[in-house]
## 1
Amino acid sequence: MKRKAQESVMMSLKKKRVRLENISQDVLTVRDVCGLIQYSTLRPTHNIMKPSWLSVSGDDGVSRVNVMILDGLTQTHFYRYFTHFKHLRNKYTARWSLAPSSGDLMSDLLNSDVTQSVEHLKISARLMLNPVIRRFGVKASGLSSFLLNEQDMIKHNFPVKGGRGCEGFVCTQSDGPVTDSSPLFGLDCEMCCTCAGLELTRVALVDSTGQCVLNELVKPHNPIIDYHTRFSGITSLMLNSVNTRLTDVQCQILQLLPPDGVLVGHSLENDLRALHLIHHHVIDTSLLYRKEFGQRFKLKHLAEVILKREIQSEDRTGHDPCEDALAALHLAQYFISKGPREIVQDHLEDLWEVEFCCDSDSNTPHSSSPLAFGHALYTSGKSALYLSTTTDDTHSLTNQHVCRRQHCTTNREVVCVFRRVVQSYTLSVLQFSHSEDLQQTPAQRQQHLQQMSVCLREMCVLYVGPWPSDTTEKQIHKLFRRCGRVRTVRFLHNTHGVHAELVFDHLEGAQLAVNHLTEHHISDCHIKARRPVHEWCLDLDERVSERQRDVLTHHMIYVCNLSSKHHHHDDLLHTFKQFGPIQHIIRPAKHAGKRHCRHAFITFERSESAHAAVGVALQMGNRKLLVCHALTPPHMISWTQAQAVVTETGQESTERREGCDPLQMERHIQKLDGKVGKVFGALEKNCMSIVILPGIRSASVDYLGLCFIQIKRDDTI
């Protein structure tokens, strides 16, 4: 039974959030993952198509991408050792099956083609290397596209709540959402030097129409050492009769700024620190009109080149804060109205002193051209890091300009190095190797994978009986299909009575059969449904309980014993909407020879709704519905997929017949999972974390991998 994954994961309950959503995707490929990484890292500078299988939205966007590759692990490993993957199963709320790749993942990533539109190809290479284009891209538009986010504010020493040196600062009521029509206010301050450092002596605020709404002299609390009259224009005589203090102008600014008001200034962090003011919506013109290597244009030069206006004239003493605030406001309004591409095209020569030329032919047909991702990342001014314990060199990694590669001796060293440089790279790839104690030959690895698959299959196995002697497989199938699809029915011949082995497609079917069909009576026979008895199944109840708490399924239920007449979306919606809002209803695809499927998965918006629906007697038509917590994650087709080799279970325990010591494997997986948790904890806010279990491709059978995706929303996690 093939069921398409449709999982909508809310990353935050706040208004500003990032949303990940599965959209009818069976199995991802490495190419799909590469497309997501390309989109997340090159979106500002290249016209990259958004992946159709994943929707990423949010005001702040993704700042960096971190990829962790856990060599040698598959989807089978994850669900066989589910208990030991505490970080992976709890921190990552989006999970997809991944087709195994026969090549090197890092090489596939850096050498994957980036498809660019003709519009992008027509842009001069010199234009694309401009720091403004590298920061904002060619399509950014609207006021909200140029606001500084929290990371940028911290990086450029803006005062932020809880920041160093911001004790006692006043926060404005900037809690309103900023739109492209939000009002702009130009701000400029003049400071003098006191015995306590720089302190405010004058402040000016102009509104979006250019009218000066605040122009006040301010007397510092501490004795003035230097008035900086040459720049500030302030003299001791000017401040003699001034009684206005810092708190007074703070109150005036708080009254003048609406909740969605945006402050504009040039090197605005200095003005806000002088005002002891924290404001979340800011645009800094020194960071709009960017220079290379973090340098900044002077406001006087920008006004002269862009606005064709002279400010800060040498004919008068000191700067006029109203004039400077108005110039910053007009520079921001001009930038927003034109957009980054037109700004750079119009002023590449007179501002950045670079000769503009178009490298592409105007007659270029409307087609796309491939570009290697590694090269595109480098030319966009982005940096990439690859940390690995492997020593194999690949051609794609020999160029240190494309990606910095560092060899580490252990997985622990990989984590330590990454934590030191976590904020230095746009893309970081960490490859964790298999433990030396678990090195296996191909034959041993194949045996281990087969035995793990058998363990997962046996979770869906029941031994049922005794049956009347004339019972047929069709009768058994008809009785138990009310709990879910039965994959196989096999009579056992070495028992006193007639018994049968049933294999369900889903773990939920076996669970419901044990709960609802034990002690069923047929012709004076008391039918009992039993689990297999060996080490793996002794703690099956605990394993089932863990899967009920899985972040992918805790808000889902499994419904079966549906009739063909009432198995419609509207009927299910009408029956279950009483428990809470429903996100979607998943009905597995039809099987060969089966016109109707008798079960469905229902996903609620809240886990409380799923808990309420379980245990309530429900009926559709003349059928009593069987309902339980969903145990099968949306990306899985079945717990009992056919394996290349299926061995009979004997007296020897399944655990001991696995291709390696299970205790060693558990310890290895716990260590890897712990390293994933440490790396995730070191990531900054809005960083996209991708964890890949690559899967294994062999001559006889392919074992699927897994891809985990999470955008970190809290620095403290």
Note: Residues 7 and 711 are 16 Å apart (CA to CA).
## 2
Amino acid sequence: MKTAYCSVITTCLLLSQGTSWAAEFSNCPTQAFIIQTPSSVPISYGVELATGSYVILSNDMNRIKAYNGVGYNYHDNYIYGWDYEGSTLGKTGDDYIITPLNVTKDTSAAAAGNFFVGDIAIDENVWYGYKKNKGLFKIPLDDPNNYSMSLVVGSTDNATYKITDFAFHPSDGQIYAVTNGATGSLLQIDPSNGSANNLGVVVTSSGSNFTFGAQFFDPDGTLYLSNNSDGKIYRLNVDEANPSADIFAYGPSSSSNDGARCALAEVPVGDNVDFGDAPDSYGTYMASNGARHSIIDDFYLGSLVDNEANGYPLPLSDDSSDGIDDEDGISFPTGFELGESAVILATATGTGGYLNAWFDWNQNGSFDSDEQAIIGHALSPGSNSVSLDVPTWGKSGQSWARFRFSSLADIGPTGGVGDGEVEDHQITITETGVTINYYPSSSSYTSVAYEDLYPDQEDYDMNDVIFHLRLIEYIKNNQIIRVEFEAQLAAMGAAYHNGFAIQLPDVAMGKVKENSIEWSIDDVAQAGSPLESGQTNAVFIFTQDLWDHISLSTGCNYLRTESGCGTSYRTTWKMRVPFETTIAQSQMPDFPYDPFIFATPGTDHGLAAKNVVGELPGRKLEIHLKNKAPTDKFATAYFGSREDRSDPGAGQYFLNENGMSWAIEIPTSWQHPLERERLDMTYSEFLNFAADKTGNTNPNWYLNANRSLIFQD
């Protein structure tokens, strides 16, 4: 026995010397080591991060309590971690036996108890352990005859964060950890004093809280997180400006989880892996976290499965290049028709497998969360018939579907799985039994014209904003399944800045399938959703500022309202809006729905408009067609102000004492007044039409103009 002499300020733990160490691990192995203690005895797993496939390395690590805070030591190729049985640091070689070490502890370390957070530095041969409210501690590992544990100076005051593991970055010398709970925040921890810099939320749970018991790096600065409850392995690159975690693979789950990995080892794909072959926008290549499965004997779809080094999207798929089609486990006895049921046949080899499937119904090049059509469906060996519903909000044409077979019921469309197979299939989505209702017709437009000086009338030339509109409804079984808008900016005689939108009265915004909306400006697809948030009804914003979409000829102040300022060009918007659930024709608002303009936020709209609300009006100022109710964002203080005589209780909106409104619809491509020529002077029959609430007087007023006062190209 070795005799030790300890000072009064230290505690000394002595164990037998002369230990014969197991052999070290191979130089910087690529696998991750997961240590779990499900029933007092630590068990070690080897996990291939690329697929989540794992093997049990040892069922018994020769201790009867937990082994936590483990880290892989790049300097000597051993694993070190905190041995709960001996309340000391343990060392593990390739026999996976935990050997407790003689560690001299200072007073703070002796009082800290056991540790479940720890790792080994890359740039120094030191194990670091952390405990909330106690501090950061370190044990140098260079001298096997003199292990001493001490508190990192200043770390106690900084030990306020709650984590279950951390890992050293491969190159910057800092420690990183993701916190637990409904959201996980990335912490950057300074090993010199234990202070933590919160870099923000990187992952949000859609179910139970996270507990990231095992965390480790690869050489590229990618941090891998193993969630205890379900074994899902997340990844994020901490070197990015705004890191965000996604599911990378599926590994072993446990209530007690810790991990170690050589941070300087790459994450290889593996030697026996099956990838998908859909276009890479769906997640196919390894670099895109493509769907991939470790191949095991007698557990796959159909009768064939082949090995690939990476994903190969069509036309590079190995099914095309080698003439052997292993996509033989899924077949389609029926087609995929919008709004109808479909059947797929799934042939399984092996027992205990589940089928998950995603269909790109909206053809946006990705599998969205609401496009999973088959969820954890248990398959029996042999042929299985599985039914699914094709949504009405889908889009007809060519698309893709992904089918994943695994022993795990809960997996996503991308990432690695430790068994089974992925099959990607091209599909054709059809649409039949649909009638189309055009307004005003398939070859013409209705016009909506606005006076933007509300709540004053002033020049009333009704050419401040003029749009030509065509509205289209798609109907199946007397239900509206989607609508389309086509809008052209026909004229703009406004100095003020206005936006343009369409409201669907009494159609809740939740009825709209927002992530399937498609829209364009001059045939250029637009990103982002036009569906305005914070509204009861569905409101679609075409633009916040119409001035962003016009080009004026030399010498012209406005668009198509001044003599000599004509143009054949029209900025054109197109919008396709599918509904989450169909709407009965009888419940759909009448044409032309509710097109309106509003004051561009942050811009002046005249003193009268400003005085009503005491500020620049922005979205508080809207101008709608006569007797169309405004949206939730409108300031009702405008009702009754200045020249407005709205009476919401009587269903009367946006009209003056003579019944004249600030917006009108004309059911044709209208010839509008020149700049500063009043509407009622240009069209003499309009005044009597506006005064008649029934609309029966001079209904064709717009056909009889004083031609010297209208704009002509």
Note: The chain has five helices and 46 strands.
